[in-house]
Amino acid sequence: MKNFFVLILIILSFLFILKYRKENFLKKSHKVKVGFLLKTMQEERYIKDKKYFEEAAKKYKMEVIFDSANNNERLQMEKLENMIAKGIDVLVLQPVNTGTASNMVEIAHKEGIRVVGYDSMIENSDVDVHVMQDSWKVGELQAKAMVKWFKEYRGEVKGNVALIMGQPGDSNAKAMSEGVLKVIAQNPGLKLVAKQSHENWASDKAMTTTENLMAKFNNNIDAFICNNSGLARGVIAALASYNLDSVGKIFVAGADADLVNVRYVAEGKQAIEIYKTIKPLAEKAAYAAYRLVVYKDKTNIDEILLYDRKVYNGYKSVPTIITPIYEVNKNNIDEVIIKNGFHKREDIYN
Amino acid sequence: MNKIVSSKRKKSKKIILEKFLKKNMNWIILLIMVLFLSLVTDSFLTARNLSNLIRQSTIVGIIAVGMTGVILLGGVDLSVGSIVGLAAVTVTLLMEKGLNEWISIILTLIFVGGLIGYWNGYWISRYKMEPFIVTLGMMTIARGLALTISKNSSIPVKNENFTKIAGSYISIKWSIILLSICLLYILIEVTYYAIKKREVLKNKSYIKNTLLKIFGILLLFLIFIMYKGIPNPVAIFSVIIIISIFILNNTKFGRDIYAAGGNREAARLSGIDIDKVHMKVFIITSVLAAFSGIILASRLNGASPSLGNMMELDAITAVAIGGTSLSGGIGGTFGTLLGIFIISILNNGMSLLGLPESYQLIIKGLIITMAVWGDIVSKNKKYHK
Amino acid sequence: MNKIVSSKRKKSKKIILEKFLKKNMNWIILLIMVLFLSLVTDSFLTARNLSNLIRQSTIVGIIAVGMTGVILLGGVDLSVGSIVGLAAVTVTLLMEKGLNEWISIILTLIFVGGLIGYWNGYWISRYKMEPFIVTLGMMTIARGLALTISKNSSIPVKNENFTKIAGSYISIKWSIILLSICLLYILIEVTYYAIKKREVLKNKSYIKNTLLKIFGILLLFLIFIMYKGIPNPVAIFSVIIIISIFILNNTKFGRDIYAAGGNREAARLSGIDIDKVHMKVFIITSVLAAFSGIILASRLNGASPSLGNMMELDAITAVAIGGTSLSGGIGGTFGTLLGIFIISILNNGMSLLGLPESYQLIIKGLIITMAVWGDIVSKNKKYHK
Amino acid sequence: MKKIAVKVENIIKDFPGVRALNNISLEVKYGEVFILAGENGAGKSTLIKVISGDYDYYFGKVYIDNILRTKENKIKKIAVIRQELNLVEELSVAENIFLGRLLKNKFGIIDWERIYLKSKELLKKLSIENIDVKEKIKNLSISQRQIIAIAKALSKKTDIIIFDEPTSALSENEIKTLFKIINDLKNKGVAIIYISHKIDEYSYIGDKIAILRDGSLIGRVQNLKEITLDEIITKMVGRDISDMYPKETIDIGEKIFEVRNIFLKHPKYNDRYVVKNVSFQLKKGEILGIAGLMGAGRTQLMLSIFGAYEGEIEGEIILEKKELNIKSPKDAIENGIVMVTEDRMKKGLFLENDINFNVITVDKLLREISNKIGVLNFDRGKKLIRKYIEEIKVKVESLNIPIKNLSGGNQQKIILSKWLATNPKIIILDEPTKGMDVGAKVEIYKIINKLLKEGMSIILVSSELPELLGLSDRILVMNEGEIVTEFTRENATQKKIMAFATGNFKRGEIDE
Ligand SMILES: Nc1ncnc2c1ncn2[C@@H]1O[C@H](COP(=O)(O)OP(=O)(O)OP(=O)(O)O)[C@@H](O)[C@H]1O
Ligand SMILES: Nc1ncnc2c1ncn2[C@@H]1O[C@H](COP(=O)(O)OP(=O)(O)OP(=O)(O)O)[C@@H](O)[C@H]1O
Ligand SMILES: O[C@@H]1[C@@H](O)[C@H](O)OC[C@H]1O
Ligand SMILES: [Mg+2]
Ligand SMILES: [Mg+2]
């Protein structure tokens, strides 16, 4: 019993602290606090996102409050709430789900926090600025490279294509796939023989799918287009067991330019990767966030920062900074990957 | 003289401390977390953050209430996470089709919650199949259904009323009134006992619980009055918790659950319809999961088919940390509430601390293990078989 | 005349058919699937596809062997999927640090498999904690560790030898020799019984099993000789299966598992060291999971920390479909093998059919439920409590 | 002088709230049968567990062959046949017999052949031929299991064996065989500790006796020749028991209950019947005894009447001229038929819960004390519980005591009071005093009498013939699922019953 009262006393003293603690106490620090909320850290690229963003924020003397949401949209909203409780001034948000993230924008806005959409479009929302590459374009670029490959290696654009998609329901996966599908539709010689989603972007599942497809079509598949690098690795692993992991034999495209895949490209195992430039993405996002805070009282984005164009997101035309995407092939690794500092030369070649 | 074979004898002071520590392991973990977070972060101990935290705990919390019943029966329900996703998608689709929000909600509760619960309950009670495997199957099926009907994409909500359901707060005035009523009720109860049944007041655990309740309500007072009032989902969750505690302790149905979970055969031979009890519990659990999905959709202003992924594990964890034995028969909702708070504070705290996801996972796993260990050690409970 | 109180009486012809159907439910499901896929797709019944299919089943298969032991004890191990990821990452990192492939493999087996198994076993046997919750904690921890040590990225393998471990085939010549030895062994056994112990040959289930084995080996002959020989992982898996069947049936350790799973108290009082049995089984399971992770890394030519996600559920499903009771004491590896094949054929078939993921999930969930239902009904097994 | 096998000194063993053993000292020599007597809860089983090394924590010393048992040196040579059998249901008879000590060949691989052969031998020694050693335990009846448990202990080839109530589920014949074996063992110099509530067995096989009451040794250890049975009983219960079977004459009324042509299909084998063509009647105020050997089908027959049989049932059940359709225990209870099942621990009690819970947790009672929407009225519940607990005279300090802390006798009384509270017309008692001491038995018998007076009728299934003969108005004898004969109270004798129960006579045949 006595112990229990001690316990209560301790808790009561907490209450005391709670009561006399003013919330604006938090806002005392003069540094601008920018919240950077990613959807997950469970892909290679996100380490870079974080690193570049923090570096850029430093330049603007902003304090970064970072978090990620384990690919879980509910969790992401909670993390946002936590960030707001921590007193962020502006938010850079990569939505887990592009379709349902508008609510997060609304929540932030209610607190007077402006939002920069990061990496993917936040649909149907009042988001202030987008900084993103165009996922649809990623798919389109992959498919165009494939068309080129057909011409080069097969002489004609005719053959079987398999589309290896990521997490079912993922909006980016969907956008990229649509980009691919559009190009395929434009080329009557191309036949889409398979279109398969993969739970959790699992590369081993992509490997299994590839094995099954190769058996089904008796190796008669000419190209695999994958929604990300991990999936492409699974495809390459499967092809390797038939000694078909070579640009000359089968076209494989991935996206993210993970180190291993860039290496595959260098070794001639994989045809191309799409490099979604992360550094400019992160830097531009930091820049936009900074401007949005500094020019808090201005409402017209045109007066605050430079952007490329306005993109309609279902609710309004959002001022959007588009960051470039590049095709990575055997010939341009130096230029696209190494010079940009994305991967080191010695990591790729040895 | 007797020689002591046992080496367990220790000085009594030490034993008392040890006993105290063991008995209150979960509370101690909670306290340490709270202390630590208050000291290390500026934002943990603010009304706003605490209000958030409590609201955040409601989604899993609602599911965990149902899960408590399932686990009391010695079963487990792995399908709840997928039901959350399916319900969220369904309710938004129905509204998109132009249905009124309440009709959509009711249809979802019946057709997602009710039917899936019935399916689970059917195989489990009719064919005595393991709940683990039946609900594992349903977990897969429901996720597939969610993907199918949503055509793999997320669905926005345009209905303002729907958004308000989970998004708004009970005004501060009403919050004060409601909380005061609760407080009053407890005080009346105590007075009643003081007058009519003195012996109850001598019961240590009754006193402990009452103090705890009063303290809890005062805390809620502080938090919610300082920040916007009671969030709607919290109010809903509170009602669910209270009802579930009441059902488990004060109704025949609740008794049947404990009996069926404690000794299935004895319960059957006492005339209790085990199958019906299972059926009901699984239906209620699914309906609660569907309800949780609806609230989530309202909070998120939309739904996507992957919502609720892995939530079943969070719910089970909360129940287990809360001291309900996974082999059935022992435990209850009050413990689950504690479990929910431990997990929520943990998640909230680590996020405030800005720990990377990978560390968060490690720490979370460790704390789960420790909390359940504490519970087991304290009550000398063991899993059998 | 007798009046019938129960309405359950049926005509005897119907009963015989029903009995047959029930008794062989899993085989019937398998047969229907095979028939259906052979008719509907051109590629299912090709040596190449079947060879693939069998190889694909080995990753989960190896884990399921360990899981069979755990489930025979009445427990469950949720951490195996994360162990796969952690082991895959660890072994590739070690090789990247320049270690030889065999040393890397051994270190991984010891430090990932052994240690995690020990951790799980420790809490479960020392404190009698529920395996469900201990391994749930470890599932989170191990995933966190995998993310931490890999710095969230995928790690390539440059070591050619390592890639060969799971990537290559046993040459056709050797495959023929190996399979012939197996066949020979069975024939010798039969002859031995025919001469020495006639009564065994009268045992229906012995004959059934022997015929099944012979048929199986002939089938493998066909498949592997027509396509490249026995894939390495399949050879490894076969060895693991055979050892595990042998251990479960013919060693003290194996019988101790059945005893401990069937009646913990009786086993303890018979002098069986329950704690040690648990410890061993959990260690073996983790080591097998780690091994599976290593093979997966070799197959994939690299590793990423998210590998093995949800694999625990596949393994548990295979065990359950294979007729091992989730409450312990009944079942075995042979059934698990059948379960693995059912799942693999299902996955392979749906992928050949080009079904969208969402339908695949629905069908998979239904088949899981039906298969386990068939097993339960056929053996009149029930879950208790 | 015979050598000392087991010696215990000043043993104290505490459980939360109970001192189960209080300063016990005694010694057991090789070549003698040492009887441990005492009421339920006296501490006999606890003492056995201390001796055999099941408990790590206790005060005092245990010597086996004059070597002190310590935590490090546990000395595992003692074979125990435990009260709670402890067999693994899913494993075969043979494997259970050799559990933990499975025979291996020289490669360390288990030698199933030898295990089966040895098991057969052992069973033969016990005169049991009809049990297949490959059969799973779960397919055996309780008495068969008991025999397997004995075989298991005997297989250990040790020279200290403890029997904790081995005969409570055995038929007379089996008991005879067992006694012969015990005698043989004794003559071979084996030390035997024997616990039983059947006091007449003591003089038959015992050499020495120690009597426990409430954890303490009453008097000194004596030679059985020095003490009479009455003295033993008096010492055990601390008072005189004048009449073991206090049968009171009650006016037997009209026929109230009847079953006609009951057939029970085996739940697994469609072509086998567990009970065949059973018909009988029961009158108001009557005790109908049912005798039979192990596996005669008595339990299954009763379960079927109670709606709890798992296989298919044919036949008619008629209560008060109304045909009943009983599909579950709930239906039976609703109609006033209740059953005290034979396996208390597994099928009767909620071990984790208190007395309160255990009494009130019957569907009918719960409904009685709840309102329309199912909310329980605890005050009403408590009143009900108190009333029936008082009626049956259970002495407990509080209703919040966990049921597992009560002795077997008190547990059984709690179960009885629970059924009484449902206001039954017919009570089925399946081995109601199994494993109970004489004192507790007499109390149960008194309760039975009281029930009859209150107008209930009782079906009593029991393997203890004296009990059946002492209490029943009529006795039915079952053999292999059939009723083979019926005796009135007056012309029933143990011998006649056994003749029919063993199948030596068939229905209609007249004995002698
Ligand atoms: N594990 C336990 N925990 C708490 N109390 C126990 C435990 N085991 C036994 N007891 C208590 O110890 C006392 C002695 O029990 P024990 O089983 O030794 O009696 P017994 O003489 O064997 O009785 P019976 O004839 O009914 O078998 C009883 O009061 C019992 O309730
Ligand atoms: N659930 C069951 N499954 C299979 N066989 C059963 C089952 N229950 C009982 N039997 C069989 O039915 C027969 C009758 O058993 P029952 O328990 O009714 O006998 P009994 O007369 O009560 O004998 P006792 O209780 O002394 O063993 C036995 O041969 C037993 O093996
Ligand atoms: O970069 C990819 C991202 O665009 C997608 O949404 O998720 C998977 C990542 O690999
Ligand atoms: Mg005893
Ligand atoms: Mg019986």
Automatic annotation (TrEMBL), chain A:
Recorded GO cellular component terms are: outer membrane-bounded periplasmic space
Instruction: Enumerate the Pfam families for this protein.
Output: Peripla_BP_4
Major localisation = other
Q: Does the keyword Repeat apply?
A: no
Q: Does the keyword Signal apply?
A: yes
Q: In Gene Ontology terms, what is one molecular function of this protein?
A: carbohydrate binding
Q: Per its UniProt entry, which superkingdom is the organism in?
A: Bacteria
Keywords (A to Z) from UniProt? Signal
InterPro entries in alphabetical order: Bact_Solute-Bind_Prot2, Peripla_BP_I, SBP_2_dom
Q: Where does it localize?
A: Cell envelope
Domain Periplasmic binding protein span(s) in chain numbering: 34-294
Recorded hits in PANTHER family, A to Z, give: D-XYLOSE-BINDING PERIPLASMIC PROTEIN
Name of protein: Xylose-binding protein
Native source species: Hypnocyclicus thermotrophus
Q: What is the lineage of its organism?
A: Bacteria, Fusobacteriati, Fusobacteriota, Fusobacteriia, Fusobacteriales
UniProtKB/TrEMBL annotation, chains B, C:
Q: Which UniProt keywords apply?
A: Cell inner membrane, Cell membrane, Membrane, Sugar transport, Transmembrane, Transmembrane helix, Transport
Q: Name one GO molecular function term.
A: transmembrane transporter activity
- Please give the organism: Hypnocyclicus thermotrophus
Where is this protein found?
Answer: Cell membrane
As for membrane topology, the entry says: Multi-pass membrane protein
Function description: Part of the binding-protein-dependent transport system for D-xylose. Probably responsible for the translocation of the substrate across the membrane.
Q: What is this protein called?
A: Xylose transport system permease protein XylH
What Pfam families is this protein classified in?
A: BPD_transp_2 (PF02653)
Specify the taxonomic lineage: Bacteria, Fusobacteriati, Fusobacteriota, Fusobacteriia, Fusobacteriales
Q: Does the keyword Metal-binding apply?
A: no
Automatic annotation (TrEMBL), chain D:
Top-level taxon:
Bacteria
Cite the ABC transporter domain residue spans from the record.
Answer: 6-239, 257-505
GO terms (molecular function) for this protein are: ATP binding; ATP hydrolysis activity
InterPro entries xrefs: AAA+_ATPase, ABC_carbohydrate_import_ATPase, ABC_transporter-like_ATP-bd, ABC_transporter-like_CS, P-loop_NTPase
Which keywords does the record carry?
A: ATP-binding, Cell membrane, Membrane, Nucleotide-binding, Repeat, Sugar transport, Translocase, Transport
Name used for this protein in its record: Xylose ABC transporter ATP-binding protein
